[in-house]
Amino acid sequence: MLDYIKLLLKSKWSVKNIILLILTVSVCVFIHVLIMHDLVKFVDSVSSAISFNNRQIEKQEIFKSPKYILLWYGSALVSPSEGNAVLKHLHCPVTDCIFTTNKHLLGNISNFNAIVFNENFLKSKHVIKPKVRLNSQIYTLNTVESAHNYPACELFLDDFFNWTFTYRLASDIVWSYITVTDVEGHIIAPSKSVVWRHSSAPVKPEIRSILAGKTKAAAWLVSNCNADSLRDEYVTRLQEHLFHFSLAIDIYGSCTGTKCTRGDCEEMVKEQYYFYMAFENSFAEDYVTEKVLHGYNNYAVPIVYGGANYSRFLPPGSYINAREMHPYRLALKIRQVISNRNLFMSYFTWTNLYKVTTSEVKVQHPLCHFCEALHSNRVQKAPAMKNFRFWWNGLNGMKWCLSNEYWSERNKMIIDSKDVYPLY
Ligand SMILES: *[C@@H]1O[C@H](CO)[C@@H](O)[C@H](O)[C@H]1NC(C)=O
Ligand SMILES: *[C@@H]1O[C@H](CO)[C@@H](O)[C@H](O)[C@H]1NC(C)=O
Ligand SMILES: *[C@@H]1O[C@H](CO)[C@@H](O)[C@H](O)[C@H]1NC(C)=O
């Protein structure tokens, strides 16, 4: 093209040549504009490709990079509480979560992916909160203590926790004391929508022979002697009625100072007792503790007493719920079962279909679920629970926040006995 322009310039300045020059220049400009347009488009698409890659990287980070979790008030549930040894120990599929109680580990608290608060955070009046909070941080309540013993009282707790990680079945991640699996190991309960099967097959011979050795009515291992659930009062009434039938609940532990035979409570319950008193210390929704396992593990029928809807937790026909019965009717029932071998056996037909275990054996541990959740896209949208106190305390729970000025032990008793067993 340059040669062509030179040739044009060398030639004489005729009108014809000038027109030719103008034409040439405009063609050049036109071509230039075309090229630039394409170039801009090209650059655009390159940069969008780059930013698309960035988004990809961010997305992958959610799933790949380690998550740092600060245990704000320490934790009895995460042990050891430093690093990820606890997850490795539990054989979690995802172990890329670093726990710590050291607030300064990452320099700034806002660098933690999650902060875990335990029940002490609910209870203390002069609670210390993190000073800075990023919206991306997942504030988690983690506790297996009953809401009754650790009510949520402070107003700020509404709209504070992004996740709940508790025994409550409606928690974001559930940490249940017990798990029911079928014999193949699939988790069946606890669940709000459990469908139980029934077995009419006979109880296995090895279980029958354990059951055949039982001689005593019921055992109760207890260390907290005046629990708010008034279980002690209930048991006293029950004892009165059992006494008519020459039966008794044998109470072991620090309340009575009675020690288990040969110091082995589990073996004693297994060898001697028809029933085991699985009475919770307080009533709270879904609060079913390992106490029922003392019964199940030792082939003693658990007599349960607590705030849960037990049909969501335990196989039907495997337990007796004292809260549905006047102490007199329960005494009658105990006598009836003890004096009828087949009736007693029928409380164990569930063993043909199910196993009741802790949540830590054979099934994946709740801490594994927590670490997985932190690596999932659940962290992207996790609005805090707005009505947390109501959710946690339940319909009648705010009274547990009142100070003793308004709330003496005496009127607590009167109100509760009516709530607890109307027939009483
Ligand atoms: C910690 O990080 C937050 C938010 O990123 C920032 O506002 C704050 O100043 C930092 N604190 C310190 C002590 O660096
Ligand atoms: C207990 O739970 C079962 C199963 O979810 C439900 O069908 C039943 O209505 C519940 N009972 C009460 C009293 O809430
Ligand atoms: C966690 O809750 C806080 C408080 O309501 C909120 O500002 C934040 O956006 C929530 N985090 C996520 C990831 O949704």
Written overview of the protein:
- The protein is an alpha/beta fold.
- It has 13 helices and 14 strands.
- It folds into 3 domains: 2-57; 67-174, no CATH class; 185-358, Rossmann fold (3-Layer(aba) Sandwich), CATH 3.40.50.11660.
- 36% of the residues lie in helices and 15% in strands.
- The strands form 3 sheets. A 6-stranded parallel sheet has the order 2-1-3-4-5-6.
- α6 crosses α9 (327-338).
- The radius of gyration is 34 Å and the shape is elongated.
- The model is unreliable at 38-60 and 412-424 (pLDDT under 50).
- Bound molecules: 2-acetamido-2-deoxy-beta-D-glucopyranose (3 copies).
- Residues 192, 309, 311-312 line the site of one 2-acetamido-2-deoxy-beta-D-glucopyranose (NAG).
- The chain crosses the membrane at residues 18-37.
- Residues 65-177 form the Fucosyltransferase N-terminal domain.
- Pathway: Protein modification; protein glycosylation.
- This is Fucosyltransferase.
